[in-house]
Specification:
The chain is α+β, with helices and mostly antiparallel strands. Helix content is about 45%, strand content about 15%. GO terms for molecular function: FAD binding; oxidoreductase activity.
């Protein structure tokens, strides 16, 4: 639909694949909703969390085109190179109960224009998101709420094309700043994962700095403040 209406998508640099698979959750992650990001020098980063069904969802993040090479090897073992030892042992022990894998083709970008007469793009159609911080569904739902706030009053008063087009443009104007902030945050965190994957000096410096400074309250507060950037962006848009 986007292509047919001439609404272009401008891609951002974060293009990669995620290999998803599921297995029984280890005991250490069974309480609540556990989430983990696993990084190791010169290895592909991974994320894992307890899913809605109580099973462990594991995702290996890889550059485009790398999955074919992975499938030619023992893909389960290769997927665990950045995982902590106890988690890798659990997944290997549960190998026969693994569901998947499923490939997720990740494209990140924004459409400069979300609307033409008769069409309004929302969610991934307007701004496909990175899986970093898992904000795609949240942002799409907020798109829908804002769209309803602008469109329902216009539709109740009768469909006047000019007013309807203006309402659609207002949706983009209200939503776009939050989308840009969220994608900027995701890009920053993806860059950190890249530093880890390639074993750069920044990763080694950050790792040693975290061990040295992590004991201090001011450093802990600074880290927590960064984690709340996205939540603050959402609140500012409310």
């Amino acid at each position: 639909m986007r292509t047919r209406t001439g609404l272009q998508l401008e891609l951002l640099p974060e293009h990669y694949d995620v290999l998803w698979f599921k297995m029984p959750t280890p005991e250490a992650m069974r309480e609540g909703c556990s989430f983990m990001i696993a990084v190791a020098a010169k290895q592909h980063p991974a994320i894992c969390y307890t899913s809605w069904d109580g099973r462990l969802q594991y995702g290996l993040i890889m550059p485009k085109g790398s999955l074919k090479e992975l499938y030619e090897k023992d893909w389960v073992s290769e997927s665990l190179r950045s995982a902590p030892g106890w988690l890798a042992e659990h997944i290997l022990a549960m190998r026969d109960e693994i569901e998947g894998p499923v490939k997720l083709n990740v494209l990140v970008g924004r459409s400069p224009r979300w609307t033409v007469p008769g069409i309004l793009l929302l969610g991934d159609a307007a701004h496909p998101m990175s899986p970093v911080r898992a904000q795609g569904i949240n942002l799409a739902l907020r798109d829908a709420i804002v769209a309803a706030n602008h469109l329902v009053p216009v539709l109740k008063n009768g469909v006047e094309p000019g007013a309807l087009d203006a309402a659609c443009q207002a949706v983009q104007a209200e939503r776009e700043p939050e989308i840009m902030r969220a994608q900027k945050l995701q890009s920053r965190e993806a860059a950190g994962q890249g530093d880890a994957r390639f074993g750069s000096w920044r990763f080694e410096f950050a790792k040693r700095g975290a061990r040295l400074l992590g004991r201090y309250r001011w450093a802990q507060n600074a880290w927590l403040g960064r984690q709340q950037d996205c939540a603050s962006a959402l609140r500012r848009s409310s």
